[in-house]
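JOB MANIFEST
job_type = single_chain_structure
chain_count = 1
residues = 138
[input]
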Amino acid sequence: MSDEDKELEALKARRLAEMKKNVFSQLQKEQTTQKKQERPPYRDIVISKLGYRGMEVLQNAESQYPNETKMIIEKLGELIYTGEINEEIDGGKLLALFRSVGIHVRMETKINIEQDGKFVSLSDKLSSKEKEDDSSNI
């Protein structure tokens, strides 16, 4: 066999090994994408477990601290997906979780008072009382 034939065979062997390696890496990529597609996004998993006012807390956290909230939701979703957390997460628990890691999510607070069988906010009650006082002073 001549030197050219040996070189040609060596090139063919290298090319064949390279092609096998490419096919193998492509198969690995497809398998990882299939695994990712099998489970729903972690945010959806967390939302499915949210209870009373949980969504409100989550939305406030996402608007105030988007990057930090994304990391926490990813980890929380992973824990729910693996079964380490299987209880409902209400707004108070979620707010406590955010605060325990140093994220102070601001929530809108309202105080309602019953007046004539209806619930009226404290600010409305105080403003209507001021109007009554002003009109009686005239």
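[summary]
Strands lie at 112-115, 118-121.
The chain has a mean pLDDT of 86.
exit_status = 0
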